[in-house]
Design goal:
The chain contains eight helices and eleven strands. With 223 residues, it is α/β, with parallel strands linked by helices. β8 and β9 form a beta hairpin.
Length: 223
């Protein structure tokens, strides 16, 4: 899953990027509202962490522009603890949740997981597809009750397919949501990781839809 962090405090920006990256996400970062708006308007993010007190363009204005232009990714806003009016303005602009500063990083991680889960229609951190279970809190993959060892890239790919279970996901969409903007989009790494995952979870879980992409489906539905 690919996230955007828009925060002008350089230390906090680095801390957020590091924590989210360690949690298995691909993270792009911006340090002012104009850059943040541009990235959010031009790149397909699964969720955004957005500070409201930004230079050049404030966070509320950034969010209003995104929503007005049809950008519907979940947005977690960062607000000052005593500025309840900022929270109201953020929600009115289209925010999905907020965290008040100062905060514990675990709270940000939990709220991001919840936003991604709800956006995909899942009620818990554990997502099931037939014998396959993906635990997004622990970044674990389990098949028939046994843990499966996967690399971070394999996990990100599988988790994205699981979030969109039953839907055909194109190779382009996978590349856009699993890698940062500097990734070589002509690379064949998606095909390589799909092949590795099939060996680990079974060939009948991830279908190739010729000319369209890939679909994660329960074995009985994959025939």
């Amino acid at each position: 899953m690919r996230l955007l962090v828009v925060e002008d405090d350089p230390d906090l920006n680095r801390q957020l990027v590091a924590a989210l990256t360690d949690a298995g996400y691909v993270v792009d970062a911006a340090s002012d509202g104009e850059e943040g708006h541009f990235l959010g308007d031009s790149e397909p993010y699964d969720a955004v962490v957005l500070d409201l007190g930004l230079p050049l363009l404030d966070g509320v204005s950034v969010l209003e522009k995104w929503r007005r232009d049809g950008r519907n990714m979940p947005v977690l806003i960062l607000t000052a603890r005593d500025r309840w009016s900022d929270k109201v303005a953020g929600f009115d602009a289209g925010a999905d949740d907020y965290v008040a500063k100062p905060f514990h990083m675990e709270e940000v991680l939990a709220r991001i997981r919840a936003l991604l889960r709800r956006n995909a229609g899942h009620a818990t951190d554990e997502m099931q597809c037939g014998p396959l279970l993906v635990d997004t809190r622990g970044a674990r993959v389990i098949i028939d009750g046994s843990a499966v060892k996967v690399t971070s890239l394999e996990y990100r790919l599988l988790a994205y397919l699981m979030h969109h279970k039953g839907r055909v996901v194109s190779r382009t969409e996978l590349v856009e949501h699993l890698y940062d903007q500097d990734f070589d989009r002509d690379s064949n790494t998606i095909e390589v990781f799909i092949g590795r995952l099939r060996k680990k979870i079974g060939n009948d879980m991830i279908r190739t839809i010729r000319g369209l992409g890939y679909c994660l489906a329960e074995p009985d539905d994959a025939a």
